């Protein structure tokens, strides 16, 4: 799975970090970022729920083609 955060859209609500804290965190400015080493999010079943919880839809989760 591929996770993309649109930094231009993110408002730093933190819902992703609350929903899937093993994958998402917030940077020093309060915006969402992926925890290093967890960029694919494949091991966390809450990644898609975290994307849905984003109030501005800044997170996109896609499956790689193939």
UniProtKB/TrEMBL annotation:
<dbReference type="InterPro" id="IPR017896">
    <property type="entry name" value="4Fe4S_Fe-S-bd"/>
</dbReference>
<protein>
    <recommendedName>
        <fullName>Ferredoxin</fullName>
    </recommendedName>
</protein>
<keyword id="KW-0003">3Fe-4S</keyword>
<dbReference type="InterPro" id="IPR001080">
    <property type="entry name" value="3Fe4S_ferredoxin"/>
</dbReference>
<dbReference type="InterPro" id="IPR051269">
    <property type="entry name" value="Fe-S_cluster_ET"/>
</dbReference>
<dbReference type="Pfam" id="PF13459">
    <property type="entry name" value="Fer4_15"/>
</dbReference>
<dbReference type="GO" id="GO:0005506">
    <property type="term" value="F:iron ion binding"/>
</dbReference>
<keyword id="KW-0411">Iron-sulfur</keyword>
<keyword id="KW-0249">Electron transport</keyword>
<dbReference type="GO" id="GO:0009055">
    <property type="term" value="F:electron transfer activity"/>
</dbReference>
<feature type="domain" description="4Fe-4S ferredoxin-type">
    <location>
        <begin position="1"/>
        <end position="29"/>
    </location>
</feature>
<keyword id="KW-0813">Transport</keyword>
<keyword id="KW-0479">Metal-binding</keyword>
<comment type="function">
    <text>Ferredoxins are iron-sulfur proteins that transfer electrons in a wide variety of metabolic reactions.</text>
</comment>
<dbReference type="GO" id="GO:0051538">
    <property type="term" value="F:3 iron, 4 sulfur cluster binding"/>
</dbReference>
<keyword id="KW-0408">Iron</keyword>
